Inverse folding.
């Protein structure tokens, strides 16, 4: 589609004179003689004449003017300039080149802001086959996510930019390491000079939760367990479709235990959610089967004496992750800004109570 050139020659001599005379009572009320014999009106008419000439010239954009404007938008070599300046070449070709150059200005070609890195990281693999696409990306400036976990947030890294990519294959998908290398290689020439780029896989905070569900009349124990698991996995999914806005669980967003209650109450056949416990919690490099992953200060439902009831001990995830009320009940689990949530619920973690 050619570039639409606006019509600038839309004012005539008579219009300009009439507008100027209409403005005289407001700006010069003492000027009362508006006849053509008045010297001031003669000056108004003279200025209107030259204004009309300037507008006429401004509206006639020459081929040379368009070519100079094209050179401001993008490089034009000597061969292309000679061809576009040739009068035998239709001016429509020059208009098309201008239209493409203006459209290219709206396309992200350099990574400057966080939004640029995130958009480019996903766009680079948009045409890749399933399993090799980036569906989410998050950029963190001043952070080196390739450094050890315990130093990421404590040691400043000015000039560093870290891009976390989430492939459509999900956590632990095959070929993720190769995809990281590919995105890093393609983003490298797009970064600003002096910027140190890091592309990494997501770091997940894994949770195992348990719940005690009261069933509605007509539902037997074991009938809603699968639906409850699916509800939790779908809502807390880091891939698009999960999370509050269905774009995936947000990076760094805390998990509130009340949200687990809310999601389980939506399951068909559940009359009440009597209890919810975050049973185990582990960082990305720790298995949920590790005893260190057990969440402490929990007495009652699905607790293990000496493990879940411990008041201290080795906490592999860090005590700052857990927010409790004055009675020791868990209210929320905090994530670090660059982490995603990964819900790992087993069938045995859901207990049902018949009405």
């Amino acid at each position: 589609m050619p570039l639409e050139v606006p019509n600038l020659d839309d004012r005539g001599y008579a219009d300009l004179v009439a507008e100027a005379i209409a403005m005289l009572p407001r700006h010069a009320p003492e000027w009362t003689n508006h006849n053509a014999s008045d010297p001031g009106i003669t000056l108004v008419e003279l200025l209107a004449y030259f204004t009309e000439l300037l507008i006429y010239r401004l509206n006639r954009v020459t081929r040379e003017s368009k070519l100079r404007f094209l050179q401001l938008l993008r490089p034009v070599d000597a061969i292309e300039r000679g061809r576009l300046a040739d009068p035998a070449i239709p001016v429509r070709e020059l208009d098309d080149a201008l239209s493409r150059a203006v459209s290219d200005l709206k396309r992200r070609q350099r990574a400057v802001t966080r939004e640029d890195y995130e958009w480019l990281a996903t766009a680079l693999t948009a045409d890749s086959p399933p399993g090799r696409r980036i569906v989410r990306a998050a950029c963190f400036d001043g952070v080196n996510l390739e450094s050890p976990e315990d130093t990421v947030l404590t040691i400043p890294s000015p000039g560093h930019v870290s891009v976390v990519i989430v492939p459509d294959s999900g956590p632990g998908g095959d070929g993720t390491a190769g995809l990281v290398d590919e995105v890093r290689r393609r983003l490298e020439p797009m970064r600003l000079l002096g910027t140190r780029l890091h592309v990494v896989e997501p770091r997940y905070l894994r949770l195992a939760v348990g719940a005690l569900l009261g069933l509605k009349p007509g539902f037997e124990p074991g009938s809603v367990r699968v639906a409850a698991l699916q509800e939790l996995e779908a809502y807390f999914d880091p891939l698009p479709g999960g999370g509050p806005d269905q774009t995936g669980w947000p990076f760094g967003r805390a998990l509130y235990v009340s949200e687990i209650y809310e999601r389980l109450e939506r399951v068909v056949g559940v009359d009440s959610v009597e209890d919810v416990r975050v049973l185990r919690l582990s960082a990305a490099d720790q298995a949920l089967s590790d005893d260190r992953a057990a969440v402490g200060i929990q007495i009652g439902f699905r607790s293990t004496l000496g493990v879940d009831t411990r008041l201290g001990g080795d906490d592999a995830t860090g005590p700052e992750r857990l927010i409790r009320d004055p009675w020791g009940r868990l209210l929320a689990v905090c994530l670090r800004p660059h982490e995603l949530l990964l819900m790992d619920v087993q069938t045995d973690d859901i207990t049902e109570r018949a009405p």
Observations:
- The mean pLDDT is 82.
- The radius of gyration is 34 Å.
- Residues 138 and 274 are 37 Å apart (CA to CA).
- The domain at 114-200 is CATH 3.30.300 (GMP Synthetase; Chain A, domain 3).
